[in-house]
Amino acid sequence: MKSVLLACTVLVSSCFSQEILSDRIKSLRVAGSLSGRFPVVLLAGSPMTISFDIDEPSPADFRLKFYQCDKDWNVMDNSFLNDELRNTTKFPLPNEPAPAGVQHYRFSYHVRVPGFPGIEQSLYSGNYRFELWDKDITVLLARGKFFVAERHSDSDLKVYNRYLPSEVAPQNQVNKIVVRYTPPDNGIANPDRIIANFVRTVAIYKNREVEFPYIIDVDDRNPNTFVEGFGT
Fold this sequence. Notes:
The protein has strands spanning about 1-10, 20, 25-30, 40, 50-55, 60-70, 95, 105-115, 125-135, 140-150, 155-165, 175-180, 200-205, 215. By secondary structure, the chain is mainly beta. Strands 2, 4, 6, 9 and 10 form a 5-stranded mixed beta sheet that branches. It has a 4-stranded antiparallel beta sheet with strand order 3-5-8-7, with no helix packed on it. It has a 3-stranded mixed beta sheet with strand order 1-13-14, with no helix packed on it. A hairpin with a 5-residue loop joins strand 9 and strand 10 (about 140-150). The two termini are about 15 Å apart.
């Protein structure tokens, strides 16, 4: 069965899924290559970039770790998927000095994933978590979340203003969101094609709030969602 991720970046906002855990790290950013810079890596290309800044006299050495997670962002207990030797960077992360006049930080780091030595390829689609550690891997400095997707497909989203007759003002003011998505059909002979009847779930993420997806499932009983055109 397949699920579809729709990144609806209606407004520009900070990425709530990225956490700074040490005052050594002054800022943390994750940007994908697709529209809206949503933190998504495509298996066929389109990597993302993890960036962070430090305010120290000289560049420091750091390590990144990557873990595949389940749909609830719990690290999967599977040594094949989460091999510490394969999922940990082994070389110093590239950095550059801050531009003249900048006072908030002195060095900025930018790591492109996949593509960085040791993290050349994401093997499986799904939810992923990364962790930033010191060079001895003894202190966790920051962490964040991103997605690895099999492919990118166009979708259509529209938002309408509506009123709920069962509520009184102002609680009766709601938004109706209509998402139209057609699974790509690349031919019956293609083993990687998406069959429409196998698409069961759509997860909508607003403003990079990856912690709070709005799930629309074909078989759910949520009175506020419905699916039509199933199979097409």
